[in-house]
# Entry
Amino acid sequence: MAGSGRASEEGLIARYFAPLAGPGADGLRDDAATLTPTPGHDLVVTADALVAGIHYFPDDPPASIARKALGVNLSDIAAKGAVPRGFLLTLALPDDWTEAWLAGFSEGLGAAAAEAGCPLLGGDTVRSGGPALIGITAFGEVPGGGIVRRGTARVGDRICVSGTIGDAALGLRLRLEPEVAWAASLDPAQRAVLADRYLHPRPRLALAAAIRRHASAAMDVSDGLAGDLAKMLGGGRSARIAVEAVPLSEAAARAREAEPGLIEPILTGGDDYEILCTVAPEQLDALRAEAVQAGIPLTAIGTVTSGDGPPGFEMGDGAARVFAAGAFSHF
# Structure
């Protein structure tokens, strides 16, 4: 894990990151690692970067920041039907970093990596000259040819999502406006659920094998359900979504009841990190059954249709819902 950084980079690596290293990493004592896929398997590679002040609050707990940084990558691995194998870390630290922050970060990163069976293989540490940047490249594997792409949905497929939608977007709003009117309808436990969903993505790795066996297309919901669904479709395919079928947590449902307009950030806000997938109707029951066995709720919310327009979202009274912005924009 070579690079330049503050005093004694090698010592910091040895203290905080070498204990997280997996097979092939040589204890992070070299400039490269080896990763051999299981015979008959393909490697799946994904990368995401988090920037302080853009993707997380600089005063978030460092262990939570680390969990989020790895979790958003593992979410992509899961949506491809893959099993994690390892990751690379690029850590660009601001001038005011402290060893206490780095200790908390490495502790959270190690816990998340151990839970996922995804060890650190290497990376780089540098000084940013600006805000902190955390870049992770994650590796997974699938049986040869088994990756589930996001652009392969078929007309007539059912559209499903795992877990619940909108919690993280509402958690972010609470972070920015703790006394917003609709928050008064939530009890402390419900507030905590929304805050936790924003801080700690839950990559749905337990669902990966079922997605690989049954889904025709899949991706994770990172930039908002409405916008990510639009990315999945196109090319003569659209969708019809029943808004009332979209699964909400008790906290999100309570908030929406207090402020109906919250349906917009619920459906367009980012950071859900749930799996959005399509499945042939005859495969839906099998996929649902395996999701139950994995302990992850999976809900059918609509159908892939023919057409070139954006996905249509239909309210319970039959009215169409049009969004001012369909997804989080990175630029």
